[in-house]
Amino acid sequence: MRDNMTAPATEKSSEGRNLGLLIAAQSLGGASPPIIISLGGLVGQQLSTNPSAATLPVSLYQLTLALCTLPAAWLMHRMGRRFTYMIGALMGAVSGAVAAQGIAQSDFVLFCIGTAFSGFYAACVQSYRFAAADAVMGDSAVQARAISRIMIGGLIAGIIGPQIVIWTRDALPGTPFAGSFYGQAALALLALPILACLRLPRTQAKVVAGEARPLAEIVKTPRFIVAAAVGVVSYGLMAFLMTAAPMAMVGCGHTVGEAALGIQWHVLSMFAPSFVTGKLINRFGNRTITSVGLVMIGAAGVMALLGLDLFHFWGALVLLGVGWNFGFIGATSLVTECYRPAERAKVQALNDFLVFGTVAIASFGSGQLLHTVGWNGINVGMLPLVAIVLVLLGLQSRKLRQQEQRAI
Fold it and tell me: Where is the Major facilitator superfamily (MFS) profile domain (predicted)?
C-alpha cells in the first residue's frame, strides 16, 4: 500500500521537476529568436547590396527551423529528447558565433549561414511544449495547463533577448550588433547544463501499442485541418509582421532602440498571457480562446493601419503578441486532440513542419512586400486570412455542438 501511494507522488515530483527545467530552457532558448528577428533585417540592410534581400537572414532561419522539425523529431525518437535538445543548444551556440563573425568580416553570406544554423536549435525549443504535454499524466485540460506553463518561459525570454540586443549591440567597437550574436551563443551554452538535468520519461511500449493510422489519413480529418490552419495563420502572420516591423519602424524615423523595445513588448505580450491561457482554455474551451486570439491578430492589423507613431507600432505588436498566444496555444491544444498515442510523434512533427514552413515562406516574402507594397499593404493583406480561419473554426465548433446535442 505504501509503495502504491509513493509512486504517484514520485511521478508528480518528476513531472514538476521536468516542467521547471523546460521553463528554464525555454527562457534561454526562446531568447534567440528575438535577437535574430529584431537584428537580422537591420544587419541584412547593412551587409547586402540588394534591399529586397535584407530579410534573407531571418528567412533562412525560419526555413531551417521548418526543415529541421522532421529530422529533430526522428532524432528524438531514436536518441531521446534530452540528447536532441542538447545537440540543439550546441548548434545554437555555434550559430551565434558564426553570425557574429559574419558581421565582423562584413560577410553577408557568412551571417546568413550563422542565422540558418539557429534553425535546428529553434526546432528543438519549439518542441518543448509537446515534451511538457507528453510528460504529464492526464486529460487534454491537464496538457493544456502544462503547455501554457512552458510558454511562460517565453515571458522571461522576451525580457532577456531584447535586453541582450540593447546592452551588447555596440559592445564591440567597429562591429555593431556582433556582440548581440555572441550573447545569443552564450545563452545557448547556459542552457546546456539545464537540458542535461532533464529526465523525461521514455515512451513505453504499452503506451504506443495499438493501431496507428497512415499520416495521409490523419491529415484529411477536419480536426487536423482546422488545427493546422489555425497554427499556420497564427504563427505565420505573427512572424510575418514581426519580421517587417523593425525595418518599418526605422524607415519611419524611429530608432533601432525603439524598434528593439517594440519587439520586446511584442515578445512579452506573446508569453505573459500564458499565466492564464491554460485556465481560460479549461473554462471556455480551446476553440473559443483560439477564436479570440485570431480576432486580436486581426485587430493588430487594424491598429497598424491607423498611424505610424510609436503608439501605433507598439500597440499593434502588443495585440499581435497576445493574439498569437491565444491562437498558438489553442492550436497546439487542438493538435493534441487529433492523434492516438501511437501517432503522436509523426503528427506533432508534421504540424510543426507545416507551421514553420509557412513561417519561412512568409519571412522570405516580408522584405520584398515591405519594399513594394509598404507597411500598410502588408497589414491590409493579412485581414482576409484571419477571416477565413475564423470561419473554419466557427463551422467546426458548430458541428461539434450539434454532435454533442444529438448524443444527448
Answer: 224-408
Which cell numbers hold the place of 21? Answer: 527545467
Residue 239 neighbours by CB under 8 Å, 6+ apart: 37, 62, 359, 362, 363
- Comparing CA positions, the residue from 233, 235, 225 lying closest to residue 335 is 225
Half-sphere exposure of 154 (CA within 13 A, CB side): 28
SS (H, E, C) 241-270: HHHHHHHHHHHCCCCHHHHHHHHHHHHHHH
Q: What is the number of alpha carbons within 13 Å of residue 397 lying toward its C-beta?
A: 14
Residue 191 cell numbers, joined: 542552457
Compute the residue count for the chain.
408
CATH number for 46: 1.20.1250.20
Q: pLDDT tens digits for 13-29?
A: 677 788 889 889 999 99
pTM assigned to the model: 0.71
Helix and strand numbers, DSSP H then E, in the chain: 17, 0
- Work out the angle between the directed axes of helices 274-284 and 286-305 (0-180°, nearest 10): 130
Does residue 158 sit within a domain?
A: yes
C-alpha distance across the termini of the chain, in Å: 40
Name the residue with cell 532577456: 160
Q: Does some domain include residue 394?
A: yes
User: Is residue 1 in a domain?
Assistant: no
Statement: residue 188 has pLDDT above 60: yes
* Beta carbons within 8 Å of 345's beta carbon, 6+ residues apart: 73, 76, 77
Which of helix, strand or coil describes residue 307?
A: coil
Structurally, how many domains does the chain consist of? 1
Q: Which structural domain, as residue segments, surrounds residue 370?
A: 11-200+215-407
Q: Where are the alpha helices (DSSP H) in 30-171?
A: 32-47, 56-79, 81-104, 108-126, 128-135, 140-168
Sequence-distant (6+) residues with CB within 8 A of 50 are: none
For the segment 243-284, what is each residue's pLDDT rounded down to a tens digit?
788 888 988 888 877 887 888 788 788 878 888 888 888 888
Residue 208 lies in a domain: no
Sign of CA dihedral 34, 362, 99, 88: positive
Q: What are the backbone dihedrals phi and psi of residue 302, each rounded to the nearest 5 degrees, phi first?
A: -65, -45
CA separation for the pair 315, 298 (Å, rounded): 13
